[in-house]
């Protein structure tokens, strides 16, 4: 039941990490892949 609200939060946290850390593209791709694989 709690899956739908969690998803935008995860995406927001990734966006914050990208902005704060100014991550490189490979790191961003790895993060996104990890989130997709968690589903």
Automatic annotation (TrEMBL):
<protein>
    <submittedName>
        <fullName>Uncharacterized protein</fullName>
    </submittedName>
</protein>
């Amino acid at each position: 039941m709690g899956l739908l609200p969690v998803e935008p939060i995860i995406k927001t946290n990734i966006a914050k990490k990208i902005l704060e850390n100014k991550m490189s593209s490979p790191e961003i791709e790895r993060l996104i892949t990890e989130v997709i694989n968690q589903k």
